[in-house]
Design goal:
alpha/beta; 473 residues; 18 helices; four-stranded antiparallel sheet; seven-stranded mixed sheet; single chain
Length: 473
C-alpha cells in the first residue's frame, strides 16, 4: 500500500473515530491489493471468500461499511442510496444496454405494458372480485379468463390454478400446504440440493419443526437420478419437490421419470416450474405432477404475481386464512390487474414458444461460436441438450467473476454471476458447489437471453469481453 493511501486511512479513521485494529488493516489491504490487480474494487463475495469476513462484520468495523473501505483505499465507486458499486476502468464508445439477465427477471413486454396502462386508465375494473355488484362480477370474470389462459398453457382444469403473490409463495404454499396437512405425524420430504432457496429454505424450516428431509445429490450436469429418488422414498414420505428447470445452470430435470417414481409410491410430486414455464411444453397431467409453481415476472409479465397448479384430488392447508378467495386456498382480495396481465403474458409466450425457442437456440449457437474465438478454454455448466433454451452458465478460467460482472456492468451489459457475487450477496452458489465447479479455478457468469436479444447485442458483448479479459488477465 502506498504512503498516500496509508495517510488517507489514518486520517479517515481519526475523523470518524474509528480505532484501527489488525482486522481493519487486513481488510483494507485486501481491498487495495484486489483493486491494483483487477482495476476494479472487490464485491462482498470476495471479502467473504478470501478473508471469511461477512457483511455484518464489515458494517460493524467501518462507519459506512463497504463505502468506507472503498473511499479510504481510493477505489472508485458510484454510490446512491447508501449502496455503492465499484467502477471499472473501461472506456465505452458506443454504449448500449444489453440485458442478458432474463433468468433473474424480465421486463414487461409491450403488450403487457399497454394492457396494464389501459386497465388502470379505464378504472372500470376496480370492483372487488368477491362482491356481487356488476363491477365485482367484471373483475371476477377477468380473473377467471386469466385462470383459463394459464390452465390452457398446462392443459389442466381452470379450477386447478390458484393465484399467489409470486413463485416463492407458490413454492411455500405447495410444500407447507402438504406438510401442514400432516402436522400431527410430521413426515419426510425429498428434494434436491440445487433447488431455489424458496424451496430449500421452506424445507429447512419444516425440518426445524420436526419434519424430516432428504436432499438428493445431482450429477455433474445437475441431473437428479430417478433411481436415487426411488431408493430414498420411505413409508412416511409425504412429498417430493424437484424443480423442472434450474435457474442458474438451466438443467431440465427428467420430470416424467420422477413423476412415474412418485406415482408408483403414491407420493405427491411438486415441481418448481418458475423458470420452465413459457420455455417448454409442460403437461402436469401426463408427467404425474401434482403441484407446479409459476411466476409472472419470468415471462414478461408483472412482478408480484404467481400461480400454483394443484391437482384437483390433492388437498392442501392454506397459508393465508381469511376470505374464500382462490377456492379457499388463499384468502385476500385478488390483485386483478396483475392476474390479468399474467394470464395474457402466459398466453403470448406460449403462442410463440416454438419459434422463439428456435431463435434463442440459434443465438446461443452464435454466442458459443463467438465466445470460442475469444476464450477457447471456457466451459459450460449443465447439459447442452437438456437445458433452458435461453440460459448459459459459463466458467471463465482464471477470472474473478465479480470483477468480470462489474466490467460488463460498466459497459451496459447486465449478467448474473453464477456464484451470486452481487454486491449484496456473499455466498458462493449452492448449485455450482453441488455440480462440483472448482471456485478457485473459475469465475462463473450466467447469461440469459430474451425476446429483445439480438445478434447486435452479442457482437457488442464480444467486442467488450475481449477488452475486459485483456484487462483482467
Ligand atoms: N423458483 C425459481 C426456479 C426461480 O428462479 C425463482 C426466481 O428467481 C423463484 C422460484 C421465485 O420466484 P419469485 O421471484 O416470483 O418469488
Amino acid at each position: 500500500m502506498n504512503n498516500l493511501t496509508k495517510a488517507t486511512i489514518r486520517q479517515m479513521a481519526k475523523l470518524t473515530g474509528t480505532e484501527l485494529t489488525p482486522r481493519h488493516l487486513q481488510i483494507l489491504n485486501y481491498a487495495y491489493n484486489y483493486y491494483h490487480r483487477h482495476n476494479v474494487g472487490p464485491l462482498l463475495y470476495n471479502f467473504k471468500k478470501n478473508l471469511g469476513v461477512s457483511k455484518e462484520e464489515i458494517e460493524n468495523l467501518f462507519p459506512h461499511g463497504l463505502n468506507s473501505i472503498f473511499v479510504w483505499t481510493g477505489i472508485p465507486i458510484v454510490s446512491s442510496n447508501n449502496m455503492c458499486i465499484p467502477v471499472a476502468d473501461i472506456q465505452i464508445e458506443d454504449f448500449r444496454h444489453v440485458y442478458f439477465d432474463h433468468n433473474a427477471t424480465t421486463y414487461m413486454r409491450e403488450e403487457i405494458v399497454k394492457l396494464l396502462s389501459k386497465f388502470n386508465e379505464d378504472n372500470l375494473t376496480y370492483g372487488n372480485p368477491s362482491s356481487s355488484t356488476s363491477l365485482g362480477k367484471t373483475a371476477f370474470e377477468l380473473i377467471n379468463t386469466a385462470r383459463f389462459q394459464i390452465a390452457e398453457c398446462l392443459k389442466v382444469n381452470q379450477n386447478e390454478i390458484v393465484f399467489t403473490s409470486c413463485g416463492t409463495e407458490s413454492n411455500n404454499l405447495a410444500i407447507k400446504g402438504i406438510a401442514f396437512k400432516n402436522l400431527d405425524k410430521k413426515g419426510h420430504i425429498i428434494t434436491s440440493k440445487i433447488e431455489h432457496p424458496s424451496v430449500l429454505e421452506t424445507i429447512h424450516w419444516l425440518e426445524s419443526i420436526g419434519f424430516e428431509a432428504t436432499y438428493l445429490d445431482v450429477d455433474k450436469e445437475g441431473f437428479v437420478s430417478p433411481d436415487d429418488l426411488k431408493k430414498c422414498v420411505k413409508q412416511n414420505t409425504i412429498l417430493v419437490s424437484i424443480m423442472t428447470a434450474n435457474n442458474e445452470i438451466g438443467t431440465l430435470q427428467p420430470v416424467n421419470e420422477i413423476g412415474k417414481v412418485c406415482n408408483s409410491f403414491g407420493v405427491p410430486f411438486m415441481t418448481d416450474a418458475v423458470q420452465a414455464f413459457g420455455r417448454m411444453k409442460l403437461r402436469p397431467k401426463e408427467s404425474g405432477i401434482s403441484l407446479m409453481s409459476l411466476s409472472g415476472h419470468k415471462i414478461y409479465g408483472p412482478k408480484g404475481i404467481g400461480a400454483l397448479y394443484i391437482d384437483k384430488d390433492l388437498s392442501l392447508t392454506p397459508l393465508l386464512h381469511g376470505g374464500k378467495q382462490e377456492y379457499e386456498l388463499r384468502g385476500g382480495t385478488e390483485n386483478t390487474g396483475s392476474i390479468v396481465a399474467f394470464g395474457k403474458a402466459a398466453h403470448l409466450i406460449h403462442s410463440e414458444m416454438d419459434m422463439e425457442n428456435n431463435r434463442l437456440m440459434e443465438l446461443r449457437e452464435y454466442f458459443l461460436n463467438g465466445l470460442r474465438k475469444i476464450i477457447p478454454d471456457f466451459s459450460i455448466n449443465g447439459s447442452l441438450d437438456k437445458r433452458l433454451p435461453n440460459n448459459l452458465s459459463i466458467n471463465f478460467p482464471g477470472i474473478d467473476a465479480g470483477a468480470l460482472l462489474l466490467y460488463l456492468n460498466q459497459a451496459g451489459i447486465y449478467v448474473s454471476s453464477g456464484s451470486a457475487c452481487s454486491s449484496g450477496s456473499t455466498e458462493y452458489s449452492h448449485v455450482l458447489t453441488a455440480i462440483g465447479v472448482n471456485r478457485e479455478e473459475y469465475g462463473t457468469i450466467r447469461i440469459s437471453f430474451g425476446i429483445k436479444t439480438s445478434k447486435e447485442d452479442l457482437d457488442y458483448f464480444f467486442k467488450y469481453l475481449k477488452i475486459i479479459l485483456e484487462k483482467l488477465k
